[in-house]
Amino acid sequence: MNTIVEIVRSLTSSRSDILLAPSRVPSSGFDLSQAVEHLACTISGLGVDRTDVIATLVNNGPEAVTVFLASTSVGIAAPLNPSFKPAELSFYLADLRPTLMIISSETPAELVDACNGAGVPLLRVTPGSTAGAVMILDGGPPTLRALASPDPSDVALILHTSGTTSRPKMVPLTHENMTASATHVAHALDLTQTDRVLNVMPLFHIHGIVAALLAPLRSGGSIVATPGYLATHFFDWLIETSPTWYTAVPTIHQSILERVKSTSDFQLPQLRFIRSSSASLPPAVMEGLEGAFSAPVVEAYGMTEAAHQMSCNPLPPAHRKPGSVGIAAGPEIAILTEGEVHQRNGTVGEVIVRGPNVTSGYLTPAEGAFIDGWFRTGDLGRFDHDGYLTLTGRSKEMINRAGETIAPREIDEVLLDHELVRQALAFGVPDQRLGEQPAAAVVLEAGAMIDELSLRQWVEGRLSPAKVPRRIIFMDSLPLGPTGKLQRIGMAERLGLFDLDDGASTNAEFVAPRTRTEEVLAEIWAEVLGRDLIGVDDRFLDLGGDSMLAIRLLTRVRERLQIDPSIVAFFDRPTVAAQADLVDDLLFSDA
Q1: What CATH code is assigned to 399-495?
Q2: Residue-level pLDDT at 521
Q3: What was the pLDDT predicted at 402?
Q4: CA–CA separation, 71 vs 57, rounded Å?
Q5: How far apart are CA 173 and CA 571, in angstroms?
Q6: What CATH homologous superfamily does 516-590 map to?
Q7: Would you say the C-alpha torsion 117, 119, 125, 131 has a positive or negative sign?
């Protein structure tokens, strides 16, 4: 199978449950293939052809699966993050120039307005009766027509990858790239028809698309399409759907392990293995997961330009090496030093890769991205004598926050849009939970005054929460190199920012809620975090909170208390007591 369409058509004969979702009727392979074909015909009937881009803005879950598969059946899929701010969405639409935009019934009005402002025709869908089915709400009555099968060399997917000194690059991936990578993942994990993956990864990211969608379908297995990782629901999903494995980024694995340690009232289901990718997995987390689930954890190495997987630790009985990203798992991998290619000699250099899963190039010129047919990853690493690859650092300046790559330049440009900011330089700072967090240094215009919180709130209105700097440092000047360029690398060390997680202890004396506001907030914390007892001095991150749970917490606060605090202001106050003070201020000011 060299195209995604062939993978979908291979499901037609299957009456087994292929696509499952919490609280939804499962779809068989036949049901899913029919739903994909119906939506694909609708898209095609709207005049979309093989070379047209179909942007999608659909929340994680079974609808995202069907929309993606249908989009690649007709044209070029470009799945976008549903949590984008309007300005971000407008940027990506201007870059992609899509022929059609598929949105869901849940898409916020402000994002619909951004689509309309870009002049993109809309097709709106909503869930159908089964997991894979979607109902078309609007977009005009299409003229159904026969679908032409794509060629393996046709582009199936476009994703953006962030650069450090320029705008995000568009990565085109062909059907051959995608199916080759799916085959590599399936082979590395020995996937069969009896395997079922619990997907908690976003389906606008290459990790989720290839490892948790195409690889299972390629092997005839099944998928549990969740709305994304929710710590309070994860174990319920495990018990309800009986998966044999899941794949996630290290920050999710760490959250899962913390909940295992803090809860003893449920029986963990048996998994065949656990997979980790998109960022380095701490060996202690790997050891803890293996002990908790009695299942091996395999760490893999991937990136968008390689359609995800490049290397992977093998499953037992083969040897796994904690701290290593394993052996080449599909493509060829080598080390580049001073123009020479090395393998298995311990030399540290830039990791390079080539193979059928690797893109042939960006849609816009990128000087130095390839050398003699090899793609330059920008990561530094070395092979040991057994052929296991260990990553030692990054030559690029990108910020890796829980596996999500953030371009510092994007943050720079938003800060520079503020009338009081003269210079801005974003950079990554180590974080115990997330790997890295964005921070920024700024130089204000002469005589200008603004506090850090106000500037962060201004950024919050223009970027998604993950990209908002956790700290903004005000400086008289920014460091320059010998050629006059700003020196981004090393900024955290220069400023003494070694960890944005202050590591506050969870062993403080328990203090019960003392006011009605503290009682309400403690109840909401308990609901979101799945805990019975919350003290006013407990800290959200220390109790297992993460960015996704933070959004959920704030949504409930807004609904129950009828206030609308800034997410930056709210989570600058990490305890119930501190948040209660902010809530009381807002309630009093509105009185």
Answers
A1: 3.30.300.30
A2: 93
A3: 75
A4: 12
A5: 38
A6: ACP-like (1.10.1200.10)
A7: negative
Domain spanning 4-382 has what CATH number?
3.40.50.12780
State the Cα–Cα distance between residues 13 and 31, nearest whole angstrom: 10
Single-letter amino acid, residue 474: F
Question: What tokens does 215 get?
Answer: 């690889």
Residue 29, pLDDT score? 95
Burial group, residue 64, by CB count within 10 angstroms (0-12, 13-18, 19+): buried
Q: Quick one: pLDDT band at residue 395, thresholds 50, 70, 90?
A: low
Q: Which two tokens stand for residue 537?
A: 């001095």
Choose among 208, 282, 219, 217: nearest CA to 247.
208
- The rounded distance, in Å, linking the Cα atoms of 204 and 536 is 37
Distance set, CA 370 to CA 178, 333, 336, 361, 465 (Å) = 20, 13, 11, 8, 33
- Find the helix packing angle between 408-416 and 452-460, rounded to 10°: 110
Give the sign of the dihedral formed by CA 325, CA 330, CA 331, CA 333.
positive
pLDDT digits (tens, 9 = 90+) for 210-249: 999 999 999 999 999 999 998 889 999 999 999 999 999 8
pLDDT at 505 over 50: no
Q: The tokens of 513 are what?
A: 């809620």
DSSP symbol at 167: S
Nearest to 90 by CA among 104, 103, 80: 80
Report the chain's mean pLDDT, rounded to a whole number: 87
Q: Would you state the pLDDT for residue 504?
A: 39
The residues spanned by each domain of the chain are: 4-382, 399-495, 516-590
Measured distance CA(484)–CA(478) in Å, rounded: 11
Q: How many helices (H) and strands (E) does the chain have?
A: 18, 27
DSSP state for residue 204 in the 8-state scheme: T
DSSP 22-78: TTSB-EEHHHHHHHHHHHHHHHHHTT--TT-EEEEE--SSHHHHHHHHHHHHHSEEE
Torsion angles phi and psi, residue 466, rounded to 5: -65, -25
pLDDT tens digits, 47-89: 899 999 999 999 999 999 999 999 999 999 999 999 898 988 9
Residue 303 — φ and ψ, nearest 5°?
-160, 165
pLDDT tops 50 at residue 379:
yes
